[in-house]
Amino acid sequence: MIPVSCHWILYSDAQKTDAVYFVCNGSDGHANLQFANAISPIQSSLWYYNLYSSKENYLEQVEIDKEKMQDTSGSPHYLEIEQWKEQLQNYKYVVIFYPNEVFKEGYRELFREPETIDQGTIYRVNKEGQELVLDYVG
User: pLDDT at residue 2 above 60?
Assistant: First the structure.
């Protein structure tokens, strides 16, 4: 289920031509499709939603989930920080659902305020010279 706050924040600031990158760790893809439908006509990414900065990070999450007796669902997508930065050049927002600790640690340097990474958070993609940074919106 998509939190209502995401709808309001996106519709209050986003234009129909803006694109939103959706991240949902542990998803089998169903949440991604729900999100894309919920924010339509705003464009959403349809690929690479279950992100890990490396295969090693993914395997670390698998071990954490085994200890917690949880399932590591979904197909992992490995994007190193520089690769994700490159993809984010085409997006105005990032929305994060169910971020795990491995995601938070693996990508923390992209966030101006990494302590804000949490369920249902929204970030604006800002380009500062050659750098790209994700700024907390809500």
Answer: no
